[in-house]
Amino acid sequence: MSKIFENLNTKAIQMGIPLGVHLDVTWRCNERCVHCYLDHDDLGELSYDEIEDLMNQMAEAGVFFLTISGGEPLLRKDLFAIIRRARELTFNVKLKTNGILIREKEAALIRELGVETVQVSIYSHRAEVHDAITKVKGSLERSIDAIRFMVSQGLKVTVANVVMKQTRWDYPGVQALAAELGAYFTVDPTITPHINGDRSLLRLNVDRDTLREIMNDKTIAGEEDEFIAVAPGADEDVMDNIPCSAGHSACYVSPYGDVYPCVQFPLPSGNVRQQKFIDIWKYSPQLEEVRSIRTRDLPVCSTCSHAAGCSRCPGLAYMEGNMRGPSTADCEKSYARTGVPSANMLIRQRTGSEG
Question: What does the angle CA 267 – CA 161 – CA 330 come to, to the nearest 5 degrees?
Answer without folding.
Answer: 50
